[in-house]
Amino acid sequence: MDLKDKVAIVTGASSGIGTAIAHNLDEVGMKLVLTGRSQQKLSELANQLKNAAIVPGEITDSALPQRLLDTALTEFGSLDVIINNAGVMHMMSIEEADIEALCNMIRVNYEAVVRICYTVLPYFKKQKSGFIINMSSISGLKTTPMIGVYDGTKHAVEAFTDSLRMELAGSGVGIATIEPGAVATNLYDSWRESGKQGYDELVSQPLQAGDVARCVRFILEQPASVIVPRLLVVPAASPV
What we know:
This protein is of the alpha/beta class. It has one domain (about 5-230): 3-Layer(aba) Sandwich (Rossmann fold), CATH 3.40.50. Helix content is about 40%, strand content about 15%. The chain is built from seven helices and seven strands. The mean pLDDT is about 95. The protein has a seven-stranded parallel beta sheet with strand order 3-2-1-4-5-6-7, with helices on both faces.
């Protein structure tokens, strides 16, 4: 895909990997619709980019996917790419489990991805083009104690994405997952707040947000005849 002047929605854009993705895609001339919880952070980010619109909101809001699609069409006249990047991670043993926090994580990490895909795919199929990248994790390929629900959300994203890939074959619409290992972002803040170390602190050189952003661009820049359905990226020093 020639990315110049293409239009992309990026969720979870107000920090970390989402911010890095926005900057990376801006470099090649993409027009961006950015969403996240913080209007201030989104506005600051948009001011650093050449052509970006913002849609602040909770990713679990069932009305948000349509608002994102409508904004892309109103502001830029089209939509070509979705980056489902928003996510949270809670580390809880059975004894510590806050069921509401865990169920909210399911809504953020999985339900929101499903809602956005099902909202946008009819548009993509009608125009016979488009690409979706769903941010998964190495946790979508394995399991780890105390983050079983998080692992489950990422396994679900993997299954959902691969099923859609087969369903969309030949339609002109592509879909893929990226599976980062430990990344130095605020994803592990809830761990640190409870006195635990984040995975990024357990690895001597964790991935940086920009490393994952380059993976996004790599997948999008493949020729139309090629799909990289999943891309695992981990720190070189991480024994996973």
